Amino acid sequence: PETAELLDRYAVVQPFGWMTYLPASAGADGAGYVPQLSLLPLGMGVGGVYHSAGLGISSFGDMAFRSNFLLGHPGFAWAARREVITAAGFFDRSIVGGGDRIMLNAFTGHYGGGRKKVSRE
Fold it and tell me: For 83-111, how does the pLDDT look when each residue is reduced to its tens digit (9 = 90+)?
């Protein structure tokens, strides 16, 4: 489904399932590398295929927060309903790293190293 359709069902979505950091040899657009994605190993480094946090949470639920590998990548792209951003604001700190995880924790209510779920009440 398209991102807009997902936002009809969910307040916040991460609009991709899988990602990889392409090596410099892949070129500026990476077009020649795309057919090889299914052949790459799972992993978090350059040349490895890694899932999004949205996919990790939808697959593993709260258990995903026990391991960064289960959780998946917390960044790259998010979409949220306007009322979410209006109510909570947009976190504009940690722009050089870590802000994506802070926002993910806020979206899901998980804090304290990811092992403790804080009540929304």
Answer: 988 887 777 888 788 888 888 888 888 87
Residue 114, amino acid = G
Q: Which of 53, 83, 80, 92 is nearest to 69 (CA)?
A: 53
Do 33 and 39 contact (CB within 8 A), yes or no? no
pLDDT band at 35 (very low <50, low <70, confident <90, very high): low
Identify any residues that bridge with 116 across adjacent strands, giving them in sequence order: 111
CA dist 103 and 85 (Å) reads 11
- Cα–Cα dist 101/91, whole Å: 11
Q: Which residues pair with 18 in a beta bridge?
A: 51
β-bridge mates for residue 46, sequence order: 21
Q: Give the pTM.
A: 0.77
- From CA 17, how far away is CA 56, in angstroms rounded? 9
